[in-house]
UniProtKB/TrEMBL annotation:
The keyword Metal-binding applies. GO terms for biological process: iron-sulfur cluster assembly. GO terms for cellular component: cytosol. One of its GO terms (molecular function) is 2 iron, 2 sulfur cluster binding. Coiled coil: none annotated. The keyword Cytoplasm does not apply. NCBIfam families: iron-sulfur cluster assembly accessory protein (TIGR00049), IscA (TIGR02011). It comes from the Bacteria. Keywords: Iron, Metal-binding. Belongs to the HesB/IscA family. PROSITE patterns: HESB. InterPro entries: ATAP, ATAP_core_dom, Fe-S_cluster_asmbl/transfer, FeS_cluster_insertion_CS, HesB-like_dom_sf, IscA_proteobact. This is Iron-binding protein IscA.
């Protein structure tokens, strides 16, 4: 299961409304950073037939098959701290992260 807080869901809904199109957001991982993995987010206009689709707070979240094993149980939040803002991920599969917080290990 993949979930979003209301703040994260509202942020995605606002972006989709401003774009004027889109079915939801795709969350995945890629190899990057000093710890090995990084989160990747992109808007989905046409879902891939292999994606797993979750619904959280009226937002469709799409996960590709390779990423699903690393993201099962993920909770996404959206935070503003001073001039910084962005998605925050609470991943029960995560074992560690790099010092800058840009990448993680499972």
């Amino acid at each position: 299961m993949i979930e979003m807080t209301e703040r994260a869901a509202q942020h995605v809904r606002d972006f989709l409304d401003n774009r004027g199109k889109g079915e939801g957001i795709r969350v995945g991982i890629r190899t990057a950073g000093c710890s090995g993995l990084a989160y990747v987010l992109e808007f989905v206009d046409t879902p891939d037939e292999n994606d797993t689709r979750y619904e959280s707070r009226d937002v469709s979240i799409f996960i590709d098959p390779k990423s699903l094993v690393y993201l099962d149980g993920l909770l996404m939040d959206y935070e503003k701290e001073g001039l910084n803002e962005g998605f925050k991920f609470s991943n029960p599969n995560q074992k560690g992260e790099c010092g800058c917080g840009e990448s993680f290990t499972v």
